[in-house]
Amino acid sequence: MAASVRRYGAARLLLVVGLLAGPGALARRGEVKALTDGTWRELLQGEWMVEFYAPWCPACQNLQPEWEKFAEWGEDLEVNIAKVDVTEQPGLSGRFVITALPTIYHCKDGEFRRYQGQRTKNDFINFISDQEWKSVEPISSWFGPCSFLMTSMSALFQLSMWIRHCHNYFTENIGIPVWGSYAIFALATLFSGLILGLIMVFLADCLCPSKRHRPQQYPYQKKLTPETAHLLKKLDEEQEADEEDISDDEAENKDMSDRDSSTNAVRQRPVNLAAATDKS
Fold first, then answer.
1. CA–CA separation, 197 vs 191, rounded Å?
2. Minimal CA–CA distance to 145: which of 244, 39, 22?
3. What does the pLDDT read at residue 222?
4. Which of 15-24, 37-46, 58-67 has the lowest mean pLDDT?
5. Which of 75-89, 137-151, 255-269 has the lowest mean pLDDT?
6. Can you tell me the distance from the alpha carbon of 11 to that of 7, in angstroms, rounded to the nearest whole number?
7. What's the average model confidence in pLDDT over 115-130?
């Protein structure tokens, strides 16, 4: 605690003396670090002030002199000053919520806060030395650069930039007309959609097999109470008795029909014999 108080007092003293004596009295020469998709994880350690800009943006161009002057105080304030060109690093810009240019973020030990103050060197210095960043609510972990959502957004930005480079290569280097490049991307999209659909159908069939592969469900697989089991047994016995009665009745009817048929046959024989005698 005492060490942090001493460091805070020293930073305040450096700021006051530097402002009274002039911009170059105590400031140490620093430089703005350029972050890329491969080095952005340096933001997770230490304290940083990062500017997201575009070379064609007039507001970004006006901010550059103040940002470079602020970088001269980076070593005294123990803060790293960095910048990100969104036109060259789309994946890194996709990890942050960039709604306007320039956008400035303060990073402290993995916590990210968006700077909303004035864009002058003195305001930047006060924001760090007076620890004004503590009054700013950090962004949610859902929108942090390490979250799954922002990682997916970064991959989408990188894919869009890769498609743009491929389009420029087809039209400028190979000489394919613009409509030909669009046709190539359309066919590639259809083919990739077909492959993705087949993969999804395969996974769905493995996870949720069709009914013909499912085991047969029996209605009485669950454990029954004694009363229910006795009632079902009684119903089965009654059904078997009914079936036996039906079979006995069928047997009696069959015997009676056999007897009738044999009697009719005996009665028909004399008639046949008489008819034969008359013919003779």
1. 10
2. 39
3. 52
4. 15-24
5. 255-269
6. 6
7. 92
Q: Which of 57, 107, 146, 166 is catalytic?
A: 57
Residue 83 · residue 33 · CB < 8 Å: yes
Under 8 Å between Cβ of 48 and 96: no
Six-digit token pair at 224? 């029954």
Please state which of the ranges 78-87, 100-109, 176-185, 227-236 shows the lowest mean pLDDT: 227-236
CB atoms within 10 A of CB 154: 21
Q: Is the dihedral of CA 48, 52, 55, 61 positive or negative?
A: negative
206 is catalytic: no
Closest alpha carbon to 127 in 110, 139, 115, 138:
115
- At residue 160, the 3 state secondary structure works out as helix
CA distance 274 to 38: 120
The whole-angstrom separation of Cα 116 and Cα 166 is: 37
- What does the buried/exposed string (b/e) look like for 90-109 if buried means 16 or more CB atoms within 10 Å of the residue's CB? bbbbbbbebeebbbbbbbbe
CB 95 within 8 A of CB 40: yes
Cis before 226? omega within 30? no
Q: Greater confidence, 185 or 82?
A: 82
Question: Is the backbone of residue 175 left (phi > 0), alpha (psi -120 to 50) or beta?
Answer: left
Per-residue pLDDT band for 269 (boundaries 50, 70, 90) equals very low
For strands 33-34 and 80-85, give the pairing.
parallel
Alpha helices in the chain, H assignment, sequence order: 2-21, 58-71, 74-77, 90-94, 121-129, 148-168, 178-207, 226-279
Which residue has tokens 């060490």? 3
Report the C-alpha gap between 230 and 154 in whole angstroms. 67
The answer to which of 120-129, 157-166, 191-200 has the lowest mean pLDDT is 157-166
Q: How far apart are CA 188 and CA 78, in angstroms?
A: 50
